[in-house]
Amino acid sequence: MKREYGDKELFRMLAARARLEPSEVLESRGMDAQEARALVTEPQAELFSFDHDTTSESLAELVIGILRIKDGERVADLCCGSGAFLMRAAREAPGASFRGIELDEWLAEAARTRLSLVAPGRAEISSGDVFEAPEEKYDKIYCEPPIGLRFNEERRGADFMLRELPWIKTLRRASHISGCWSYVCKVISSLKEGGRAVCVMAGGPLWNSFDAPVRGHLVREGLIEAVVSLPGGMTSYPAPSVTLVVIKRGCDGVIMADASCMEASGRRRKKLGREQIDEILATLSGGGHGKRVSAEEMERGGWRLVPERYMPADEEPGEYARLGDIAAITRGAMMGTREFEALSGGEPAYSVINYADISDGLLSDGLGRISKLPPKYLDCLLRDGDIVISKIGDTPRSAVIRGLGDTKMIPSANFYIIRITKPGFDPYYLKAYLESARGQKALAMLSTGTAIKTLSASALKELRVPLAPEEEMRKTAENYRTAEDELRAVKAREKEIKAAMSSLFDRK
Predict the structure, then answer these.
(1) Staple partner for 102: which of 52, 69, 108, 322, CB 3.0–4.6 Å?
(2) pLDDT tens digits along 426-457
(3) Where does residue 123 fall: left (phi above 0), alpha (psi -120 to 50 degrees), or beta otherwise?
């Protein structure tokens, strides 16, 4: 039928049949009003293309559990789409009233039709810009705004946000602020005293430096109650994973709940089971494995709304040192492609390490070369004993610099330089830890990002390095150095064998 009539015509036909209006087409197929109603009042991604981006059933179930909707309350979905969340909420809370706002007129019509069947007389759906909607107050709000908007791309939202937070215009990088914060501001302005809201967010806005002033303001004002990171694949849009930000006034600290490692089932759209949802809800109520993080701790962490950043690591007992206390950490040369090409002419005098130049902890032989080095990059010149570690990637790449001799070498901006300052501390001991399973787990906990993991310098300084008796540390470093030499020899031999294999045909 979808091929015969198309999404809109078929949906309207089914809705009319669900309202007991006669339909010769559907009656001829033996479809009664009850069957039509079942198709209309549940998201049907296979039948209707406009349902592809709806809020999933398990995400809606979790949000409803967080909101705790009561009889008599007013509930809003400020980007309601075709009404998936509101339908679920209306069934769960038959004594509440509902309001949906949707920019797309057709989606608003679909939501309006569905809610007229699921919650007749209790729901109002309007089409239009949420920032131009009349000011109303709600007890509970859900908002799943568009992903990836920039502040200057969402003009109406930007104007609204500047009215709510006028100090933003004084920021040097105000145009880089993510547009999703406009929706968060709208949610806060629409929330009654004592009310609660849930916003779905993803990616950079939760952790990048551009948005840090906004995040810091919300935390300092006590407007964020909790942050819940979810497993990947629970939404239809490209973000690998999403995070729920729970809004409530008068909060002292933020409850961080990391559910990103929960096993979610499903093929196209992942979903959580009832037990997993209950576990998350218990964490937000003070049980489970959550952590309440103070504003002071969040400020030290760059105001990141990333639960795994604050969760206690499963450390083995023993003595630890903060990496920033035993080493200086600086960024590699912030050299763009054009500048690199401009410096490449003439007699090569400097080698440049790029991300692809480190594999299995070893430096490649064929590094890029430049003929001169501007004075601003002199601090990036490497010394024997330095460690370079990549700032991007699921598994950071690192290498110890040794045997430089007269070679002058700098790392690109994709790396940090770790220079040991603690007397007698062998960089190979640190390298052994960075490459270990424990070290990799610790680095993963400090990294942020969804599609691309990023390790900031401030986070790297907080890495806790396990210490041991001096002789044990010396032996670990020695063994690692020996193993690295063996690996280098194996790779050199592998290269020779491959070269020989590629020339076999030409020898006949």
Answers:
(1) 108
(2) 999 999 999 998 898 888 878 876 557 788 89
(3) beta
